[in-house]
Design brief:
It is a single chain. By secondary structure, the chain is mostly helical. The protein has three helices and no strands. It has helices spanning 14-31, 40-46, 49-52. The mean pLDDT is 78.
Length: 64
């Protein structure tokens, strides 16, 4: 039987932590909507999609 060693061996997956944070932000944004669903534009805003696109926050987005 293999048991993980105790103490000081915590592994952090920075990508997983970032994804968890973004999921939390989506949940908070969704809870603020009184009825219906989040719009695609609001989801992009919460996930900061425009910041990742060329041209920054004002970059053109292709939704095809």
């Amino acid at each position: 039987m293999n048991v993980a060693p105790v103490g000081g061996t915590a592994v952090q997956d920075h990508v997983a932590l970032a994804e968890i944070e973004l999921c939390g932000e989506l949940i908070i944004a969704a809870s603020a909507v009184s009825e219906g669903r989040l719009s695609v534009d609001r989801i992009d805003e919460v996930l900061r999609v425009a910041e990742a696109l060329p041209g920054g926050p004002e970059g053109d987005r292709d939704r095809t």
